[in-house]
């Protein structure tokens, strides 16, 4: 009788681990939407929660959205055992760039080798004053390191606007 209980308990634990390891990448979409108040979502999610890719999309209105490049991630499971969340992040179509590294602790977050490519019209969504300008081109935000702790963002960044245009 006791062996049977252990066997059932072991089978349930094995099944739970199997579900967790093979969880689809699409599960990240709902938390991202909740965190961003519905402004960000993930489209075309592929792979698993731990290693996958998706296209971040900025929702700009009821029927319009701005897609970004495809983002790839690789979450380091061993760091979770030490109480940290670590992930390597990279973008499609960005050559010769080291992967970004995201480290999240209990009270801080740090992003190194930051490279955020996006369409310039994202600026118009952040500032209603600039919306009539109909900005075009590609924007890249680059930084060696950005950290967030105690409600403060620290670090420096450079914004590069290529193929800049405006109505």
Between the first and last Cα atoms, what is the distance in angstroms? 77 Å
Number of strands: 10
What characterizes the major β-sheet? 10 strands, antiparallel
Low-confidence stretches: none
Write down the overall mean pLDDT.
86
Helix percent band: 10-25%
So how many helices?
Answer: 4
Strand residues, percent: 35-45%
Overall geometry comes to: elongated
Order of helices and strands: HHEEEEHEEEHEEE
Class derived from helix and strand content? alpha+beta
C-alpha-based Rg, rounded: 20 Å
Which secondary structure elements does this structure contain, and how are they paired or packed?
Elements: H1 2-21, H2 29-35, E1 40-47, E2 51-59, E3 65-67, E4 71-75, H3 77-81, E5 85-91, E6 100-104, E7 108-119, H4 121-126, E8 136-149, E9 152-155, E10 158-165
Antiparallel strand pairs: 1-2, 2-3, 2-4, 4-5, 5-6, 6-7, 7-8, 8-9, 8-10
């Amino acid at each position: 009788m006791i062996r049977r209980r252990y066997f059932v308990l072991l089978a349930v634990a094995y099944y739970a681990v199997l579900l967790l390891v093979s969880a689809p990448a699409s599960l990240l979409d709902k938390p991202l939407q909740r965190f961003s108040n519905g402004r960000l979502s993930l489209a075309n999610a592929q792979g698993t929660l731990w290693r996958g890719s998706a296209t971040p999309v900025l929702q700009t209105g009821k029927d319009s959205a701005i897609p970004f490049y495809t983002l790839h991630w690789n979450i380091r499971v061993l760091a979770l055992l030490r109480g940290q969340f670590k992930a390597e992040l990279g973008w499609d179509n960005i050559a010769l760039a080291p992967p970004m590294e995201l480290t999240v602790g209990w009270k801080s977050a740090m992003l190194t080798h930051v490279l955020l490519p996006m369409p310039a019209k994202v600026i118009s969504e952040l500032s209603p004053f600039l919306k009539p300008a109909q900005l075009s081109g590609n924007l890249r935000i680059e930084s060696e390191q950005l950290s967030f702790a105690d409600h403060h963002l620290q670090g420096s960044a450079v914004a590069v606007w290529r193929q800049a245009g405006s109505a």
